[in-house]
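Quick one, T. Sequence first:
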Amino acid sequence: MAKEFEILKQTCEEESIEQTTWGGRQHFLRWKTPTTFCNWDAADLDYDTTLSFADHVGFRSGTCYEYPVYDVVNQQPLKLRERPLIAMECTVIDERYMGLGSGEKALEVFLGLKRTCQQFNGDLTLLWHNSRLIEVEERRLYEANPCSLKGNHEMKL
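Structure tokens:
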């Protein structure tokens, strides 16, 4: 992990890409406690945003706030922070998960999560895969959802 992260930072530097905070998530939400936290911390990443449910949106960490990570084996705090992932677009859209498609029902789920996070002055961390911006309906949902830069919260069907 540390070696791959160094390659990424070096490549960004060569391309004049500046970034002060670095983090990420485990692909397919693959996670092993406490190993993953310790690997990310040892690589000197600032945050992780993996902790989520694949099959249903919600608050797996029980919160919508970033929090410090703790190494339960060595019983010490880590520098790493966790930014809980509240929702992935595929969880809402795909038939194998919630199966709501990319219309009004899906938008209502995202807006409901937004309202809950706002109620507690928290953060709505949303994962939207770039491969889900190809289909017109999914792109419209992205543009209407509460985390998008264009988020007008209206579906233009």
